Amino acid sequence: MVMRETSRRNDLLVTSVVVLVLSLVFESAVADDLTGIDRFVCAPAQINICDEYGSCATVMPWEVNVPRFLVFDLKKKQIGTTEASGENRVTPIQSVTKAEDAIYLQGVEGGRAFSFVISRSSGFMSAAIAREYLTVTGFGACTPAT
Questions:
Q1: Which residues, 6+ apart, have CB-to-CB distance to 90 below 8 Å?
Q2: CB count, 10 Å around CB of 45?
Q3: Which candidate, 116, 134, 136, 133, places its Cα nearest to that of 125?
Q4: How far is CA 107 from the centre of its chain?
Q5: How far apart are CA 68 and CA 84, in angstroms?
Q6: What is d(CA 129, CA 114) in angstroms, rounded to the nearest whole number?
Q7: pLDDT by residue for the chain (146 residues), tens digit each?
Q8: CA angle, corner 141, sides to 97 and 57, nearest 5?
Q9: CA 142, CA 120: separation in Å to the nearest integer?
């Protein structure tokens, strides 16, 4: 049992490292410069979920009901789904901080706190969501909305 648990943890660690490295390598190829942009679309690429017992899993976004595309509107202070998704989901953003090199977004909805850090120069997105007994982190790429 202990050997199986150690093997599973090692497999998860290797998978996480490989996905992180690949996302960093391909960051410039799939994301865009968001300097001066207030409306953009992001595609989550990897999701990691951990519970209070330290068990973690790497999953694809659609496996845990994360939309394939997120539309960020900084002027309206909201995150939503694309019209084509048919989901009509909208989440308010309570805090928008625009720094020279990044955009920082935070909010709380439905018992969950969330934070996004989005690079202005590359469009690379890092996200963290927390609720009682569960954390979710993710990475993705963003491009200006048309």
A1: 78, 79, 80, 81
A2: 19
A3: 116
A4: 14
A5: 11
A6: 4
A7: 444 455 555 454 444 443 443 444 444 445 689 989 999 999 999 999 999 999 999 999 989 889 999 999 999 999 999 988 888 899 999 999 999 999 999 999 999 999 999 999 999 999 999 999 999 999 999 999 98
A8: 100
A9: 9
3-state secondary structure the chain: CHHHHHHHHHHHHHHHHHHHHHHHHCHHHHCCCCCCCCEEEEEEEEEEEEECCCCEEEECHHHHCCCCCEEEECCCCEEEECHHHCCCCEEECCEEEECCCEEEEEEEECCEEEEEEEECCCCEEEEEEEECCEEEEEEEEEEECC
Contact in structure between 70 and 107 (CB atoms under 8 Å): no
Single pTM value for the model:
0.77
Rounded distance between C-alpha atoms, residue 53 and residue 85, angstroms: 34
